[in-house]
Amino acid sequence: DGGITQSPKYLFRKEGQNVTLSCEQNLNHDAMYWYRQDPGQGLRLIYYSQIVNDFQKGDIAEGYSVSREKKESFPLTVTSAQKNPTAFYLCASSATAYYEQYFGPGTRLTVT
Amino acid sequence: ELKVEQNPLFLSMQEGKNYTIYCNYSTTSDRLYWYRQDPGKSLESLFVLLSNGAVKQEGRLMASLDTKARLSTLHITAAVHDLSATYFCAVDMVGGADGLTFGKGTHLIIQP
C-alpha cells in the first residue's frame, strides 16, 4: 500500500530536550511538507522540501530543523529553542510542488 | 501575505437540513482544497478546485470556486450525522512553492 507514515503516534518529552519526528512516504513524491496544528486552529507550515537535499522555511520555522537526504524521508527535529512545542504535527507529500497534498496520520507531541 | 478566512467557525445543525460553509482568501490563487478532519485524526482530502467556476460534488457535499470573488463554498445537502467533523479550506499561493495556507476550520456538529 502506498502512503505516508509518521512515527511515533504519541511522543512525550521533557522541556529542554530535542526530539525528532519521523515521516516516510512510498508514493515517489518529490515534495514533502511539515505542518503544525494547535487545538481549534488550522495548520501552519513549518518547512517544505521540493527536492532531495533542498528545503525551505515556512511560516513558523523558528525552533525547528529538517533534513532531506532521501526522497522518501523528511524528518523534523523540534529543538529546545521552540518555545511552545506541544502540538499535533502533520507531514504531507505531493507529486511535485503545486500538486494535491496527501497527509500522514500525524504525531501528537507533548512537552512538559 | 495570504490569509484564508472561514465562516462560520462553529456550526450545529439538524439532520436533514442544508447549509453552506464559506472560505474567503486574500490574494490571487487558482487552487483551493477542502479537507475533512475527524477528532484526533489526520486530514482527508475532499475536493480539489483548480479553476474559476469549478464545481465538484461527492454525495451530500458540493464545493465551488469563484476566483474573481476569492471565494469558495462547501454546501451540505440534507445533512446526516456522519458528516460531523471539522472542515478546512486551504489555498495555494500563486507560484505554488510555499505549501498550503489553511483556514481555521469549521467545526460541524449534526444532531439527529
Give structural notes.
The complex is a heterodimer of chains A (112) and B (112). By secondary structure, chain A is mainly β. Chain A is built from no helices and 11 strands. In chain A, strands 2, 4, 5, 6, 9, 10 and 11 form a 7-stranded mixed sheet that branches. Chain A has a 4-stranded antiparallel sheet with strand order 1-3-8-7, with no helix packed on it. In chain A, a hairpin with a 5-residue loop joins β4 and β5. Chain A is globular. The termini of chain A are far apart. Chain B has 112 residues and is an all-beta fold. Chain B is 0% helix and 55% strand. Chain B is built from no helices and 11 strands. In chain B, strands 2, 4, 5, 9, 10 and 11 form a 6-stranded mixed sheet that branches. Chain B has a 5-stranded antiparallel sheet with strand order 1-3-8-7-6, with no helix packed on it. The radius of gyration of chain B is 13 Å and the shape is globular. Chain A binds chain B through residues 33, 35, 40-45, 48, 50, 56, 58, 90, 97-98, 100-106, and chain B through 4, 31, 33, 35, 41-43, 45, 48, 88, 90, 92, 95-105, 107.
Summarize the structure.
The complex is a heterodimer of chains A (112) and B (112). By secondary structure, chain A is an all-beta fold. Chain A has no helices and 11 strands.
Proportion of residues in β-strands of chain A = over 45%
- Unreliable spans of chain A are none
Apparent shape of chain B: globular
- Helical element count of chain B? 0
Largest contact between protein chains? A-B, 22 and 24 residues
What's the helix count of chain A? 0
Q: Roughly what is the average pLDDT of chain A, rounded to an integer?
A: 93
The residue fraction in helices of chain A comes out at under 10%
Number of strands of chain A: 11
Oligomer: heterodimer
Termini separation of chain B: 41 Å
